[in-house]
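Hey all, sorry for the wall of text incoming. These are the four entities for the joint prediction.
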Amino acid sequence: MSDVAALAGVSKMTVSRVLAGRGVAPATRERVQHAIDELGYVADAAAGALSSGRSAFAAVLVPSLASSNFSDTVRGLTAALEPHGLQLLIGDTDYDLEREERLVRSMLRHQPRCIALTGAQHTPATRELLVRAGVPVVEMWDLPASPIDAAVGFSNAKAAREMVRYLAERGYRRIGFIGGASELDRRGLERLKGYSQEVKARGMSERVVRLGDSPITMSHGAPALDALLQQWPDTDAVLCVSDMSAFGAIMQCHRRGLSVPGDIAVAGFGNFEVAACCTPAITTISVDAYGIGKRTGETLLAALAENDGASRHATPSRRSVKIDYTVIARESA
Amino acid sequence: MSDVAALAGVSKMTVSRVLAGRGVAPATRERVQHAIDELGYVADAAAGALSSGRSAFAAVLVPSLASSNFSDTVRGLTAALEPHGLQLLIGDTDYDLEREERLVRSMLRHQPRCIALTGAQHTPATRELLVRAGVPVVEMWDLPASPIDAAVGFSNAKAAREMVRYLAERGYRRIGFIGGASELDRRGLERLKGYSQEVKARGMSERVVRLGDSPITMSHGAPALDALLQQWPDTDAVLCVSDMSAFGAIMQCHRRGLSVPGDIAVAGFGNFEVAACCTPAITTISVDAYGIGKRTGETLLAALAENDGASRHATPSRRSVKIDYTVIARESA
DNA sequence: TTGAAAGCGCTACCAC
DNA sequence: GTGGTAGCGCTTTCAA
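and here's what came out:
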């Protein structure tokens, strides 16, 4: 920066102002900009952060970047935060709460301006770290009973209930559920819970197969469907924890010579791309994953703006943004 | 850190050494660690980076996080770099070279220790910035004619030729290609180039449909297949620029009552999960996307180790790692 | 094995 | 509109 200042014949402060886009006379600004280009000068963000006491980072934690759900959410966050000069620090927890804690710890070292993470469940240490960080926090994809700060999500249980209701209304009575075996995928467990509640409420019996790790992939569907039909051969509909699994199940139906939905109806969750493209097209719950990211970003920005205006100590906003979901009726159920 | 030092009754330097895991007497180390836990102290990475002149960042640029290809590559990079204490700065270029340049510029402000980016094509300014950065750079997913520094990838053109060869050997003679319309997806264009070369070399005629933006998604396949069959109704095989498109095309064949591969063979590229799960299972080119990330990470680490040992000015390694690919023969072709 | 001083590159603050 | 000074929280270097 000294070099640039010298070349432009101004002080470092003026260079700093030009970079920050603050009040500088047009002529001066041009000279400085020229010097910057000349020297290929790139300001050091670490020095800036240290000096000003505010970084340009936003921390983001998702269970898995490979799931289109969460990569869409990350895209939404990027869309909201990048225009405000925030650089995303993205971490992949792999559905592991200990790993989440390690990642939070490591990200906190970079003094992020705000934090977005997935789900309602975290280790006590993670919660403690997050609260102490004193920056806006949003938990995404769930509506926690006691949020750390704010939340942007929906009730996975209620959404699953709605799908069971849809199936019941279409006349299906022997409805199964296939999902993952892991206790770590809380959203999957919530969906299972919603399924169980609604099935019981209607006096139907539960038919649950839990198999495999999260994230649930396409290859989950085939063995899960086989297991379900082996135990309950007369099953007439199956709700899958995700469209990935639903797709695998439908392909397995093809292989077994079962028609969908004629012999068995299959419903998914998430409205992934495959649900619309596959034949039969998959009936599913549509969740706006990108919107969750976007709304989360906006919520964080609003909290940042407030904190700037008011006291320094982050006043937890506790706001909770409910994201809509809808049953998309297609061909498979 | 002063607070921690005071509480532990040592100097700041000793606290710093404990955090860095350097030579400190066990008793002292314990006292310090206790004070750290007590106060919930989290070291400031910006200050550390500024003081030591070396950040803990690795910059990564991919065209799209939504493509499982690239999210797998990011996972591979994480696996390689995270254990060495490097934090990934992930950017999504959206197949836009201008955006790539902006992202590089913004990431460079954080003084990354190394940089991984996708493809061989960049704006002149991007190349300039990257060279001036003086840190190891790896270009992934391609083998550039004149790499900036190192490269980890394969020839997309040769891989596509191999698939055409496979199809020709299975007796297909009227082979089409469906891909994206964008000039920005260089890997897609390379695949098209390979197709054209091999088709011409065998005296067959080209049948090319280019449609839609990158990243190519499942919904690309159906309209592209329709367009192909409208123009060349007697097509007996189609090579798709990606498995996503191939899947969409196969589903469209189902809808049109065409049997695959009986009426028309369909081949994909990438060996995505859907290729193995769908029926008929998709014949494709398998590329180890995760491995590209892993190898890239290892290449970067090796370069960092060298630079540490030797001179400060990064000696470009110019090494080029070739990644294997293979035709996976399944049911669809 | 530990401590003290200097300074990394920038921005906040106050003068002019 | 511009410049000087102080100092952000660490690590480097050297001394004890």
